[in-house]
Write a structure and sequence with these properties.
By secondary structure, this protein is an all-alpha fold. The longest helix is centred in the middle third of the chain and has 18 residues, at 70-87. The chain has a single domain, classed as Lysozyme (Orthogonal Bundle). It is built from 9 helices and no strands. The chain has helices at 8-21, 47-58, 70-87, 94-110, 115-126, 147-152, 163-180, 185-193, 200-209. Helix 3 (70-87) packs across helix 4, helix 5 (115-126) crosses helix 9 (200-209) and helix 7 (163-180) packs across helix 8 (185-193).
Length: 218
């Protein structure tokens, strides 16, 4: 029999202590080849929220960064090269890796999210598989549920397999959950996975995140 999960407030407290110490709060969940996402709850959205989310999805700026300072551009290129090397085992074709990383960086920054966090989430959710489908029907890299296409998109769920569309939806949804949870990443990650208040999924994402940090980051 599986042990009873800790109450949400205790799980969150343990997770925050472990995150501050830079360790996992308990054993990491082994997330095998199956796509695990798709337990997000379809919740009613206020009209203002739906309008704001729809606008975020519809703004189709190209994923090409612009930098005012040469130092920022150098830092970006350093990040791109390092992440490309780390991603080789999962995406062997260089141009595919670069396009994926450019788009992920752009969409992460656009949603005010840390790229390492989004990379960790993609690793846990889909194992970097573009056409991953969960048992609940969630799709693509960030395992976006089809109902989001209806709520804030154009209703065409097949577009969730498009790289930029999927990454944009996923980042906008995670940002939305962070705002709903008033910046509480533990609760926002749980809500993204449909396991709000449990530590297993946030542990897995934050453990994967550490694999995508640059030296000196924490």
């Amino acid at each position: 029999m599986s042990p009873e999960p800790a109450p949400p407030h205790l799980a969150r407290r343990a997770w925050l202590r472990a995150a501050a110490a830079g360790v996992a709060a308990g054993p990491l969940v082994a997330w095998p080849g199956l796509a695990w996402a798709g337990r997000q709850a379809e919740e009613p959205l206020a009209d203002a929220v739906r309008t704001a989310l729809s606008a975020s999805i519809a703004n189709s700026a190209p994923p090409k960064p612009r930098f005012d300072k040469i130092e920022d551009r150098i830092a970006y290129l350093r990040w791109l090269g390092e992440m490309s090397d780390r991603l080789k085992k999962r995406k062997s074709e260089r141009q595919t890796r670069i396009e994926f990383l450019e788009t992920l960086w752009y969409e992460s920054k656009r949603a005010s999210l840390e790229p390492a966090l989004v990379l960790g989430l993609v690793q846990v959710e889909s194992g970097f598989r573009k056409y991953a489908i969960s048992v609940a029907g969630a799709r693509g890299y960030m395992q976006v549920m089809p109902f989001w296409a209806r709520l804030i998109g154009d209703g065409d769920a097949s577009r969730l397999f498009h790289m930029q569309t999927n990454l944009r939806f996923g980042c906008v949804i995670l940002r939305h959950y962070l705002e709903r949870e008033r910046g509480d990443l533990f609760m926002a990650l749980g809500r993204y996975n449909g396991s709000r208040g449990r530590a297993e999924y946030p542990n897995a994402v934050m453990g994967a995140r550490r694999q995508w940090l640059l030296p000196g980051q924490s």
